[in-house]
Amino acid sequence: MAAGRTLPAAISLSGLAKSFGVGKQVFSDISFDIAPGSLVALIGANGAGKSTLLRCIPRLIDPDQGEIKVLGTDVLACRRSLRSIRSRLGFVFQKHNLVGRLSALSNVVHGAQARRYGPRAWHQALSPQSLRAEAMACLDRVGLASVAAQRADSLSGGQSQRVAIARALMQRPDIVLADEPAASLDPQAGDEVMALFATLMREERKTVVFTSHNLTHALAFADRVIALGTGRILLDAPTQGISEGTLRTLYG
């Protein structure tokens, strides 16, 4: 890359707006770019539109207007290529979304569905040795290789979220979107999961956007914080130098 040339944004939003029915505007004129490899915290009070905005990025929810570009591709213009774009996005959500009756290992194998189709990416017993080995390596990275054979519904909340993180790693995404990844956990487990999540994402040089009500997590684990409120962006700044007290004033 030539000196002085900057990489294109991993995510670019321009003039994004979304409403749910007449008079129920969630947000409007949301615009920002996210640089490759950065970790961004999206904060705001309940109802500020954090989760809705996050889900607009891969078009799990369609905005009413605006532009979304992911890795240089206009997502709203995609038809057949939308699946290809989504395959480059990993997801970690509050409810974990694991298949309870299947083992932790099988749930991690599911991450390969972004690059493989059919039953070989559904159950570890049907998967080739290379996929099982990769899934085990992902479980090992989150400290859960020892529970690979356990049913997902027998795991604790913290363990379940670690499996969800391992599944996201298995997908080999360029970008990871995480919606309140620690909200359903007790404080200690939440701190541990967020620290692990941020460490792994930095090691993998992933671009990350995560929503959070926990201002301590936002400041500790993100490079940048974007605060939503009253349907607009209230703050967009690097976390360095921002205090938790300053962020709390945005909730007034």
Architecture overview:
By secondary structure, the protein is of the alpha/beta class. 29% of the residues lie in helices and 24% in strands. The strands form two sheets. A six-stranded mixed beta sheet has the order 6-7-8-3-9-10, sandwiched between helices. A four-stranded antiparallel beta sheet has the order 2-1-4-5, covered by helices on one side. α4 (129-141) crosses α5 and α5 packs parallel to α6 (187-203).
Short synopsis of the structure:
This protein is α/β, with parallel strands linked by helices and 252 residues long. The protein has eight helices and ten strands.
Q: Topology, pairings included?
A:
Layout lengths: L10 E9 L5 E10 L4 E5 L6 H7 L8 E6 L2 E2 L7 H5 L2 E5 L10 H6 L19 H13 L15 H14 L4 E5 L7 H17 L3 E5 L3 H7 L2 E6 L2 E7 L5 H5 L4
Parallel strand pairs: 3-8, 3-9, 6-7, 7-8
Antiparallel strand pairs: 1-2, 1-4, 4-5, 9-10
Helix pairs in contact: 4-5, 5-6
List keywords for this structure.
alpha/beta; 24% strand; four-stranded antiparallel β-sheet; 252 residues
N-C termini distance: 45 Å
List the uncertain runs: none
Number of helices: 8
| Sheet with most strands: strand arrangement | 6-7-8-3-9-10
- Number of E strands: 10
Helicity level: 25-40%
Structural class: alpha/beta
Integer average pLDDT:
90
Q: Strand fraction band?
A: 15-25%
Biggest sheet descriptor: 6 strands, mixed
Radius of gyration: 18 Å
Order of helices and strands: EEEHEEHEHHHEHEHEEH
Task: Give the overall form.
Answer: globular
